[in-house]
Amino acid sequence: MTRRGRPCGDRGLATAELAVALPAVVLVLALCLTAMALGVDHVRAEDAARAGARAASRGEPVAVVREVAATRAPRGASIIVDAGAEGVVVRVVAPARVRLLPRLPSAEATAEALWEPGVRP
């Protein structure tokens, strides 16, 4: 028996195809969102390292440099300030926010700045 030109055996076929394809779509979406979050964390780490290096090159104390960098860095980031004779290096390392994929790389950034004139380490 047919209904509107289609055999009755095709009823529900679209639902079954959707049920098979939906997990793949959700997985691709989750991977895209994870990659985007890692990219945002990397950009924030770069910005934090640069801001910290600028503050340090002006002669700000290390506590202030870390605070400046921490306000721009991703949550849970560690900030390392290394002052040398020529300038300062600020490194920001933020762990990946995703717990399901533990081998994802962390967001890391390093910025260097020379000492401003009149500033001594």
From TrEMBL:
Sorted UniProt keywords: Membrane, Transmembrane, Transmembrane helix
Organism domain of life: Bacteria
Positions of transmembrane segments: 20-40
Name the record gives this protein: Pilus assembly protein TadE
Organism encoding this protein: Ornithinimicrobium pekingense
